[in-house]
């Protein structure tokens, strides 16, 4: 996959919004280059209906969109792929179900998990938590050096996730990351489009060789 698509990776969270479709579109207008739809509470039918709407928005703007964990929703919604965690469907099995043309991202917290995901056919790694985060309560930070070791362990792009803000993102410069994935740094902000516009140049600087 094109690693440039991962520069500013938006992960949805409905906890901060009353209109997720509106805010996803605002994030894209501000510069988000990739969208992951993450829903832990919605039933399958509601999730699918929402996913179809957001996939259509992303497609209209030429931005890739993947579904967190749920391969069935990814297939039915026409999403570009899935992102799976270590406790979810293994990347190789996800590839079997989705086929060769879809994107598969895998969460990895260390070199071993990253290598295993790459060998199973992952297209990119989401690694972290980069910093302490309230989004995932059990995610222990691996910090910049932990991220560097993951980047150096694989040949596929790596995106940092977890507790990343406008204030601390510069601590990730020079690690070889393709970009960063953010949740609250976008969707908890009063102006999502403005937040994305401020984050994008910082992400571009981080992703420079």
List the keywords.
single chain, 209 residues, alpha/beta, eight-stranded parallel barrel, 8 helices, 8 strands
- H/I helix tally: 8
Distance between the termini: 18 Å
**Cα radius of gyration in angstroms:** 15 Å
Strand order, largest beta sheet: 1-2-3-4-5-6-7-8
Ranges with pLDDT <50 over ≥5 residues?
Answer: none
SSE series: EHEHEHEHEHEHEEHH
Per DSSP, what share of the residues sits in E-state strands of 2 or more residues? 15-25%
Structural class: alpha/beta
Provide the helix percentage.
40-55%
Number of strands: 8
**Sheet bearing the most strands, described?**
8 strands, parallel, barrel
- Global geometry: globular
What would the average pLDDT be, to the nearest integer?
94
Describe the overall structure.
- This protein has helices spanning 20-30, 44-61, 71-77, 91-98, 111-119, 143-153, 184-187, 192-207, and strands spanning 8-11, 34-37, 65-68, 81-84, 103-108, 124-127, 158-161, 179-182.
- It is α/β, with parallel strands linked by helices and 209 residues long.
- Strand 5 (103-108), helix 5 (111-119) and strand 6 (124-127) form a beta-alpha-beta unit.
Write the layout of secondary structure elements.
Blueprint: E1 8-11, H1 20-30, E2 34-37, H2 44-61, E3 65-68, H3 71-77, E4 81-84, H4 91-98, E5 103-108, H5 111-119, E6 124-127, H6 143-153, E7 158-161, E8 179-182, H7 184-187, H8 192-207
Parallel strand pairs: 1-2, 1-8, 2-3, 3-4, 4-5, 5-6, 6-7, 7-8
